[in-house]
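Holo model, flavin mononucleotide. Inputs:
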Amino acid sequence: MSQNAPLVNVLYGTVTGNAEEIARRIHNELPSKKHLQQGLLRNLADYADVPAFNKPTLSSNVYNIIVVSTTGDGDPPETIRPFMRLIRKKDPSKLQGLQYAVLALGDTNYENFCNTGKRIDNALPKLGATRFLKRGEADDGVGLEIVVEPWLKNMWLDLERIAAEAQKLPVESPVSSEASAEPSTDKESPQAEVDELELLVKAISIEELGFDETRLPKMFPPKVIANAVGETGAHQTPLSVSPSYDSSVVRRATVTDAKKLTSSDCEKTVWHMELSCDSSNQIKRKYRPGDAFGVIVENDPSEVQRFLKILQLERNQVLRLCKESGKEIATASVLQFVQQRIDLRAMPKKSLLRAMSDHCLDVEERKTLLHLCSRDGRRQYTEQVTKKELSILQLLEDMAPSCRAPLSLFLDLLPAVAPRWYSATSSPELDGSSVLQFAFSVVEAGLATNCLARLCQSFADGQHSSEVLLIPRESDSTSHFRPPASLKTSYIMIGPGTGVAPFRGFLRERLHQMSQSEDKEVGTTTLFFGCRNRGKDFLYEDDLLELQEKRALDKLDVAFSRDGPKKVYVQDRLMACAREVAEVVKSGGCLYVCGDGGGMAQGVHAALGDILAEFCCHGKAEDGKAMLRQLAEEQRYVRDIWFHG
Ligand SMILES: Cc1cc2nc3c(=O)[nH]c(=O)nc-3n(C[C@H](O)[C@H](O)[C@H](O)COP(=O)(O)OP(=O)(O)OC[C@H]3O[C@@H](n4cnc5c(N)ncnc54)[C@H](O)[C@@H]3O)c2cc1C
Ligand SMILES: Cc1cc2nc3c(=O)[nH]c(=O)nc-3n(C[C@H](O)[C@H](O)[C@H](O)COP(=O)(O)O)c2cc1C
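Output:
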């Protein structure tokens, strides 16, 4: 390859892994591109590792592809905040010479669609960078692939063209590239037998059914192929075929303690669960209070049975799942793939409905699916699928019981069951680095929490202790949800409900640090906790009182929302202690908020803004809000907020 071959770096910003998956795919395809050089693959959190961002003028032959998602309410993924600060600099030559293209991921169900990608794409030219390809905006609400696939195709064409110019090569015609992207016709069919009736139904064209192909989602070649290779028994099955399962990071942990933190007459149940990794299976990097761990979850067994039944899938058949390139992903039984690699509660995207329609034996069902995914059926899709949060399983049972699509289609177009995240409530210093404790609230019909509750109950009943598969959170290496480095820094923690979990970890670590420190001069700590009733759901009451007695916690302020005549929430308690809160901020202290991101996070945010306005900004509301933003920039106002899945 010529030295002039453009070098392509791929950078991503992600919360749940979509952007990383696409970035990795681009990076992995680079070696097969004759005239391009594979550069770095990096999280934008680590942008400083990428020379193109340090000395961009020296790197005019370097092309940077940025794949980034939006989270919260139009916010960037937490880990890339330092990068977002970099691009706010007002220096028109800061990134002079840097060439880039942005692929923004978002969801039109949210107001600030693709906000992070837009912000990056608009900011970089102001720093002297050059955009070489128009931004892509992929909508997870209807299927990322609808935009991602053509955008990638264009990106490769553009890069090939740039490479040809740089190396004075003949420019390949787009037609030949297009052709190479077509599915190869001699690929083995994923299903050996195709039902005759299905062939007959398929023979009726889209036009004959009254649909216009151009108003339907585009069909793309499958990204995965599954071939039957026999029956279970003859094959060794892997421990897990979940895409979250990477044996180098996954930890197997055993339940070593479990107790209910709520009373038997409480409306909800919260469990304290302790997991231990054995010595051969230690958590690689010592975790810190504030870290969250993902629990790898399987589909509910009864839902798995219903799915197998409706599609008439043979549970013991062994499939070899491969990428388009032929590279094997996993070999396992149909049952295991259904349990672990597709999310049976996922909402079917339009591209899946389009693909499923080809496999319906009933013409009316085929028409229903085609209408739902067509542009003309937009309203019905919103009413019948999005608003009802219809799962693929419900859709199959209610609208397409005659569908006989092969499993490979679902493996290709459905997401896998996502890991569920839990914040450690333990301290590695005090509890041991191979011990992890969590507190979780059991959610009605919740997949993970009901499964974990069963494990906890069986431990509490003295039955066998079960195993759980855990992964550390991708962003932990750069997480900012950490207690202050110095014992001298005062801080306020606001964590109602299970939001208290990481703060118990913070305080346990503090207790340990105080016992090791000679210096008796330490800052103050205040915890605002909230629950319904003192007698029912005051989580970790004894532990918190003990931490207070031992001076790791100076003040515990609890808002009981159902104990008195008036509902009291943490934000009310904050307002009642406004002066104290402001004093902590004025002394250089930090504010932490953790828990469910619904009303609580907004209420607390508004209360803190008001407090700062009154005590630090001469009553000016706008200045209070600006001060809160500034504190967030300085990592002195840190939030770990989760939303319902
Ligand atoms: C970084 C991070 C840390 C987290 N830490 C904790 C923690 O320490 N403790 C903890 O309990 N949770 C925590 N969560 C939330 C947790 O990951 C799960 O989302 C939650 O336990 C529900 O999982 P599930 O599989 O039981 O429910 P799902 O099967 O995902 O949801 C089933 C249904 O219930 C709804 N739902 C989900 N959660 C709730 C809820 N809390 N209240 C009402 N309805 C809900 C969903 O919208 C869905 O309709 C954290 C999340 C993140 C991202
Ligand atoms: C809690 C949450 C908040 C989100 N907020 C937004 C938003 O404000 N704007 C938007 O365009 N997309 C939003 N999204 C959609 C994501 O950007 C989209 O699902 C994307 O594919 C996620 O990519 P990732 O896995 O790389 O993070 C949100 C998703 C979640 C789960």
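Residues 14-19, 69-74, 105-107, 110, 112-115, 140, 144, 643 surround flavin mononucleotide (ligand 2) (CB under 6 Å). The radius of gyration is 27 Å.
Archived with the compound record.
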